[in-house]
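Help!! Second protein's tokens look totally different from the first
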Amino acid sequence: MDVLLAIHTRKLCADREAKKAAAALETKHLADAKNDGFDVKEIKDYLDVMLSDDPKKIVDKFGMMRRNREKLGVIPPQAKDLFSDRVTREQQIDRDGYEAGLNGLERNPRHTRGGTEDDVWYAGYDRGRSKYEGRWEIVLAAMEAARVAEETAKTGVEPPTKSENPFAFTQH
């Protein structure tokens, strides 16, 4: 029995260590997002709403999607009057699919089942996924270059390039 208890204890200890590591990684990623000019609270709210299966959060989800789409310039800003300046249902479904694909969410349109709306959602999803896959390395490299340039400006010391071996031995 003591060995069986030890097996379960070790598993749970490993789980706790994994949670700590995941929490530290999440903290680092949130700090990176904040450093890149994003509101961390908005990102947390976005994930909470978009990944929730709670039916009470449907209204929150649509509000969050609208705010993000306005901020990113993919839909025109909505006036205070909810019935003015609306985008069409097809545009909203397309944007929903696009965001899901861009963010790597599940490829499953939650609000449509069959018909042309599904086709619109899947086309948006594929477009978002394709854009991410085609650009994430470029965007990440640009952000890293900006960080290196900022650090170089602060310290006055340029880091070695990846092609240079800082420990290379040269003979004279």
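Here's the second one for comparison:
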Amino acid sequence: MAKAEMRHPALAGESWPVIGVRIHREGRRPRSASWRPAPLTVLEEVLLPCTWPELERLAEIAVGLSRARVYVQGLAGAEPDGRLVLCLRGAPGAVRVDGPLAPVAEVLAARARTAALRVAAVHREAGRQQEAQVWRARARRILKDGRAARRGRSVRAASAGLPTLGGRP
């Protein structure tokens, strides 16, 4: 199924992971967004995307494997209620989410993992065991990347292979 054809599960009334983002709107469109309180912003629940490339990048950003920025855009097909979805740079109508990601990074990684597990459950219920297994493996990778980020990198990786004083052998 092509990305243009894919409908977000939230449009069908299914439960889908969200994260709180402070949004300033002009009419129905977002004008600015922030992780932290800012003037004229209102805390809104923003949906996570439902495609793997976007979920993967958001998880990489959350665990510190990527320094890319997070954006929000209006959810296609959700015009009456103006729901928003997290996205990446280059999406049409996207507005960058300002502020430090660190306070919400762990929550974002967990929500991305939850979204991957939801997709796996949908595939499992539809009898597509192989697709479900692929999505469970993706969710497991998000979990492992998060654990590795919390442990930190090895001294060798941090020092680019050069010996360090007082470092681990």
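Reply: Different proteins will give different token patterns, so don't panic. The longest helix spans residues 102-125.
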